[in-house]
Amino acid sequence: MEQELKQEFEQLQAVYDTIINFFVNYSFQLFGAVIILIIGLIIAKKLSKGVQKLCESKGIDITLSRFIANVVKLLIVFMVGIICLNKIGISVTPFLAAIGALSLGAGLALQGLLSNYGAGLNIILTRPFVVGDTISVHGVSGQVQDILLANTIITSEDDVRITIPNKHIIGEILHNSDSVSLLELGVGVSYDSDLEFVISKLKEALLKHQDVSESKQPQIGITAFGDSSVDLEIRVWVNSNILNSARFAINMTIWNTLKTNKVDIPFPQREVNLIAQNAMQ
Length: 281
What we know:
By secondary structure, this protein is α+β, with helices and mostly antiparallel strands. The chain has helices at about 1-55, 60-85, 95-110, 110-125, 195-205, 245-260, 275-280, and strands spanning about 135, 140-145, 150-155, 160-165, 175, 180-190, 220-225, 230-240.
């Protein structure tokens, strides 16, 4: 029993001596490595922001600017890490060899993640959409808030934050309406109406509507001749982030315009003829 305790004590003493010797021999190097790491992280952060501002000032869109800035930041952090390891006497060569040996297995294990990163790089380089655009893909739609290597973050009109893995965007049918979206509405008016007058009044009201984009003129025309009404189609462009609220507001404007100008909105009617029983006989 005493022999076992003595061996354990000797092992603890050896570990203690090793730690003490390390701090005695490398205390200044360790302190220097920490200082270098802190300064390196600060420089990486500031330089990353500077690169992003420079790219944006040169007309590069925000998506590519952020990507370039993040790459610069990662490269600086990687180089600072190598310097810090060398400072405390740790060689990075074995780490690089281990990374090379594990890369194949990691690639097989992380196929999904790597495919997301590859798709994200494709999005950033080809730019089918940028931050601020409104996209629809895989049954979800919203305004693009950020494009990362692994996923794309969009926000719906209801302020729902949606994260889409990038591999589900590349190779799929993508709808990009930029900053404005088309809103298609319809209304039926009586066959007795002066259609040119109705269309002109509706267009006049829509041009004054605050939700209608000024970049494109509203389009109004006859889309069909129904059983009880002449059906008009109204096409307007509105900001993509207020699509539903704009639909409600513009429908109310259409209703008020027709009502103010005494234009009838007919409802379906049917004529029923009653044949007297005596006539049947």
